[in-house]
Design a protein that fits this description.
Blueprint (H helix, E strand, L loop, with lengths): L14 H5 L7 H15 L7 H22 L1 H15 L13 H21 L3 E11 L8 H4 L11 E12 L4 E6 L6 E8 L2 E8 L4 E7 L8 H5 L3 E10 L4 E9 L3 E10 L4 E9 L7 E9 L2 E11 L4 E11 L2 E10 L2 E10 L4 H41 L1 H31 L3 E9 L10 H4 E3 L1 H6 L6 E3 L20 E8 L2 E8 L4 E3 L11
Parallel strand pairs: 1-15
Antiparallel strand pairs: 1-2, 2-3, 4-5, 5-6, 6-7, 7-8, 8-9, 9-10, 10-11, 11-12, 12-13, 13-14, 14-15, 16-17, 16-19, 18-21, 19-20
Length: about 525
């Protein structure tokens, strides 16, 4: 569909950025932007054969963008799928009378169907490896009684248990592939009961499990919990068998926290538990948690944290202090669909030294590893990914660079007239403008290959002493291209208004309106 409109555009072409309009732009705004660029790129305005050829190519690209965005049907397709959606077969038969909202709904339905088919054909292997470590000899030593025993001068650390399980999941069932350390299997039936849910299961040892869950257990207006940023659920479970028990719990999950209140009455264990987890809204998805559990077996206090250390890995550590359990350190690593769990039992007693080392030791090791190993590895990985991205987009970037340079040459005459008009009214004149990645003084030698001069393209966008840029990547503007693929970019502008110098730096996807009083450069500074 798009190819028939003229010059073939790259798959990542931003039509909104090319026309410098908002994604919510009206037909009048689109038409005004289109006319402005047509006057700039019209081939009949250029006599030089080379400039005429370049103008014709850019004119066709602008015309293609306008044709797509001015038609509600093609615009709806482009907004969801981009240019790839326009090239899909079958859209010609879609009814022209359908609204943009109806087209979006239809495409989203088709997308969900394709996703469901893809999930039905995909398996998701999961695995857990748990290695229990007994390190009580570090703190509970009997040096006086065993000082003459060979090898007794060194603490004995040993593995006392190991558990390995693997499973393959599909959308229809879960099939255990191999399992060690578990004593049976279970068949589970599930059904619905109003807004709540119930299930019944039986195991190989004759246990019976019944349960009920749902927001309706907490309040009649259960939809209030679901439509907001939090979700509160109640659970009730009864287990019959050798270890009969009834368990009830309330779980409240929000964007920044997770709270659990639970109580169990049963044989041989009855307990009450409260657990809280705080979720930091940072890039590493840091979470700090703590819990208190009191029952017939004693009291357990747990605290810990977890953090994302790479794209697919999450590392966590929890300290458990209890009576009569003692002190333990639990280390957990989630790597993609695999889980590695290492519970380390330190002592059977409540020793302050064991609590101190269990708390401080993992922190020191983590920060040392993060600084010396993880951070350099992630930096090198990012560089490799950026290099691959640059290689894969090298031809497109070269084409965009050539188009930008051609556009700048075509803008020269228009810019000269704009500057003359702005000078006559003491209006807006762009003195210098740069776009790309700005580096510090220690790396200034790389600045030339990271930043491009966009003075002429910006001056060409000035109208009535105003310059307005929308919330979109500046790389799509006429006369611009991406000088540093995959890296953060900014736009730095030095301009003159009413004879006074102004300066502003804007993020790549940030909207910009100049002139502004806040951009003024203080003459005394």
């Amino acid at each position: 569909m798009a190819a028939a409109l003229g010059e073939e555009a790259p798959d990542n072409e931003d039509y909104y950025g090319l026309l410098n309009v908002r994604r919510e732009a009206s037909q009048e705004e689109l038409k005004a932007a289109y006319r402005r660029l047509c006057m700039l790129y019209h081939p009949d305005k250029h006599r030089d054969p080379e400039l005429k050829s370049q103008a014709e190519r850019l004119f066709n690209l602008v015309h293609q963008a306008y044709e797509v965005l001015s038609d509600p049907q093609t615009r709806a397709i482009y907004d969801i799928y981009g240019r790839r959606g326009l090239e899909m077969e079958g859209w010609e038969v879609v009814e022209r009378k359908r609204t943009a909202a109806e087209i979006r709904e239809e495409f989203e339905r088709l997308q969900r169907e394709r996703e469901e088919r893809r999930l039905q054909q995909r398996t998701n292997p999961k695995g857990t490896i748990s290695v229990g470590i007994d390190a009580t000899d570090l703190f509970d030593r009997y040096d006086e009684e065993y000082e003459d025993v060979p090898g007794s001068s060194f603490p004995q650390i040993e593995i006392n248990k190991m558990h390995i399980s693997q499973s393959i999941e599909s959308t229809e069932h879960t099939a255990p592939a191999s399992q060690q350390g578990l004593g049976g299997t279970a068949q589970v039936g599930r059904g619905s009961l109003g807004p709540a849910e119930w299930w019944v299961g039986s195991g190989a040892f004759g246990h019976l499990l019944c349960g009920l869950q749902g927001p309706a257990l907490l309040a009649g207006r259960c939809s209030d919990f679901i439509t907001t940023n939090c979700n509160t659920m109640g659970y009730l479970q009864w287990r019959w068998g050798i270890q009969s028990a009834m368990n009830t719990s309330i779980v409240r999950d929000t964007k920044s926290s997770h709270l659990t209140l639970a109580m169990q009455l049963g044989i041989p264990h009855s307990f009450m538990m409260v657990s809280y987890q705080h979720k930091f809204q940072d890039e590493d998805q840091t979470r700090v948690k703590g819990s208190l559990k009191v029952g017939f077996f004693g009291t357990i206090v747990e605290y810990g944290a977890e953090r994302k250390i790479s794209r697919h890995s999450v590392l966590g550590a929890t300290v458990s202090v209890g009576v009569p359990q003692g002190v333990s350190l639990k280390i957990k690593l989630n790597r993609a669909s695999q889980t590695y769990f290492f519970p380390v039992h330190l002592t059977d007693q409540l020793l302050p030294s064991a609590v101190f080392y269990a708390t401080v030791g993992p922190l020191v090791i983590y920060f040392a590893m993060h600084r010396l190993v993880i951070k350099p590895y992630l930096r090198a990985q990012k560089e490799r990914e950026l290099e691959k991205q640059r290689e894969s987009t090298a031809s497109d970037i070269l084409q965009k660079k050539q188009e930008a340079e051609a556009a700048v040459r075509l803008m020269q005459e228009s810019v000269r007239r704009i500057i003359e008009a702005e000078e006559a009214r003491m209006g807006l004149i762009v003195v210098n403008a740069w776009y790309g990645k700005f580096v510090n003084d220690n790396s200034r030698k790389n600045e030339k290959v990271k930043v491009i001069d966009v003075t002429v393209p910006l001056q060409c966008l000035v109208k009535d002493s105003k310059l307005i840029l929308t919330e979109a990547s500046k790389a799509g503007l006429p006369g611009f291209y991406d000088p540093c693929v995959g890296e953060e970019k900014s736009l730095k502008v030095l301009y003159q208004f009413r004879g006074v110098l102004h300066q502003v730096m804007s993020a790549d996807n940030e909207a910009l309106r100049i002139p502004k009083q806040s951009h003024r450069i203080d003459a005394d500074g």
